[in-house]
From TrEMBL:
Presence of keyword Nucleotide-binding: no
Taxon lineage: Bacteria, Pseudomonadati, Pseudomonadota, Gammaproteobacteria, Vibrionales
Gene Ontology biological-process entries: benzoate catabolic process
Domain FAD-binding: 6-346
A molecular function GO annotation: 4-hydroxybenzoate 3-monooxygenase activity
Cleaved signal peptide residues: none
PANTHER family: P-HYDROXYBENZOATE HYDROXYLASE, TRK SYSTEM POTASSIUM UPTAKE PROTEIN
Keywords annotated in UniProt: FAD, Flavoprotein, Oxidoreductase
Transmembrane segments: none
Matching Pfam families: FAD_binding_3
EC number: 1.14.13.2
Identification of the protein by name: 4-hydroxybenzoate 3-monooxygenase
KW Phosphoprotein (keyword) present: no
């Protein structure tokens, strides 16, 4: 077995792992990334598209902001459409100048991977981690296989950035972790196409046929989503069927100018809310989707991963700058406060905007009428709109607390 050594072993090369690796590298903290899939596979995954300001600032700190600043689309607002009637939520006005940036996760991943290559830090691809040793009595160890050969990495800390299906979370003993979960009775069917977006801002559409979202990746590339039942199969959705259904759910003005075209990608993602507490155990930290999942309605999944990275980067930097080990112990609590906030917002947006009515085919349910009324209440009140805007642009990151070294009393030398 080959043995390597590093300070931080990072499992997973999604946005969490890559961003953490780059920030630590900039701070002179050695790290190794181990990724199950090939680099190409990681780069080709089509996922999130909206970045909060906090994420953009982290990319700047990591030195990976050049392309984002040239190609990212700054959005000052979003539209919420209810049965075709649009309301504009002016994010900038309602939050004293904040914005979000539309820049695909695929592009973020590509920029971070390029920076990683240039950094000469070690990364292993097509190398699934199969075991984690994380006891307080011995050095932390990560074991994996590559090209049929076993490897182990000895390290101070392990960052579990390996997503919802990774090995990090299950390696925390069951009696230590508590998991909270909600599975929604629908998913999102997403379609990417090289057609100009119908609108220069995002439109979240509540509709009796089901939710729809009009998003984008650039001025020439659109990303659309449709709420579909969990039983639906992507093969049953031809491009023509998708475009027809989307037209029915968009406001009339956008439906009239919708330009259709062949899809570049089409897939169904189930919707889930999930949190694992605590987010750390001994020398292992869970980061991003490894610890929590939100339904995509609030555009929070990727942004939450970034705020975890910010917290872990801060505690590890403080530790390697000489603060006592205790400084890393605040990681989970700091993260979980922000995580639960985003979980609540994402659940709320999902509950307000989706159609839950399959059990009530001819009569709308009481719960749905409550959601209609609540959404209308928010959209017709300045303070309601402000609440939506503040959460959509993202709450500020919490700063970690310094831990003073224990001052040992001076020994008094007694001369005999
Ligand atoms: P990732 O991106 O899942 O990366 C985890 C990485 O770990 C690797 N891995 C392992 N590596 C080594 N050994 C093992 N044993 C391993 N097990 C797993 C995986 O191969 C993978 O490369 O997690 P990370 O970095 O925390 O990033 C989180 C974001 O990717 C995620 O929050 C968002 O993409 C969620 N999400 C969306 N968020 C939004 O805000 N808006 C969206 O529109 C949106 N769409 C999506 C999404 C997530 C999706 N998933 C997870 C299927 C659409 C989809 C389809
Ligand atoms: C996307 O563009 O993929 C996207 C944007 C906003 C969301 C979810 C997904 O809330």
């Amino acid at each position: 077995m080959k043995t390597l050594q590093t300070k931080v072993a990072i499992i997973g090369s999604g946005p969490s792992g890559l961003l953490l690796g780059q920030l630590l590298h900039k701070q002179g903290i050695d790290n190794i990334i181990i990724e199950r899939s090939s680099a190409q596979h990681v780069q080709d995954r089509i996922r999130a598209g909206i970045l909060e300001q906090g994420f953009v600032e982290l990319l700047q700190q990591a030195g990976c902001e050049q392309r984002l600043e040239q190609e990212g689309l700054v959005h000052h607002g979003i539209y919420i459409s209810v049965e075709g009637k649009k309301t504009h939520v002016n994010l900038t006005k309602l939050t004293d100048g904040k914005v979000v940036t539309c820049y695909g996760q695929t592009e973020v991943t590509r920029d971070l991977m390029q920076a990683r290559q240039a950094s000469a830090q070690t990364s292993f691809y097509s190398a699934p981690v199969n075991q984690i040793h994380n006891s307080p009595q011995s050095k932390a160890r990560v074991c994996f296989e590559m090209d049929g050969e076993p490897y182990q990495i000895e390290c101070d800390f392990i960052a579990g950035c390996d997503g919802y299906h990774g090995v990090s979370r299950p390696s925390i003993p069951q009696d230590i972790r508590t998991e909270y979960e909600r599975i929604y009775p629908f998913g999102w069917l997403g379609l990417l196409a090289d057609t100009p977006p119908v609108c220069d801002e995002l439109i979240y559409c509540k509709h009796s046929r089901g939710f729809a979202l009009a998003s984008q990746r650039s001025e020439t590339r659109s990303r659309y989503y449709l709420q579909v039942a969990n039983s639906e199969k992507v093969e049953e959705w031809s491009d023509e069927r998708f475009w027809q259904e989307l037209k029915l759910r968009l406001p009339a003005e956008e439906a009239a100018k919708l330009q259709t075209g062949p899809s570049i990608e089409k897939s169904i993602a189930p919707l889930r809310s999930f949190v694992c507490e605590p987010m750390q155990h001994n020398n292992l930290f869970l980061v991003g989707d490894a610890a929590h999942i939100v339904p995509p309605t609030g555009a929070k999944g990727l942004n939450l991963a970034a705020s975890d990275v910010a917290a872990l980067y801060q505690v590890l930097s403080a530790y390697y700058a000489g603060q006592p080990r205790q400084v890393v112990e605040q990681y989970s609590d700091v993260c979980l406060r922000r995580v639960w906030n985003a979980e609540r917002f994402s659940w709320w947006m999902t509950s307000m905007l989706h159609h839950f009515g399959e059990e009530h085919e001819d009569k709308r349910s009481f719960v749905e009428k409550m959601a209609d009324s609540e959404l209308e209440f928010y959209l017709h009140s300045e303070s309601g709109m402000k609440l939506i805007a503040e959460q959509y642009v993202g709450l500020p990151y919490e700063q970690i607390k310094s831990v003073e070294s224990e001052v040992k009393p001076h020994a008094v030398q007694v001369n005999s």
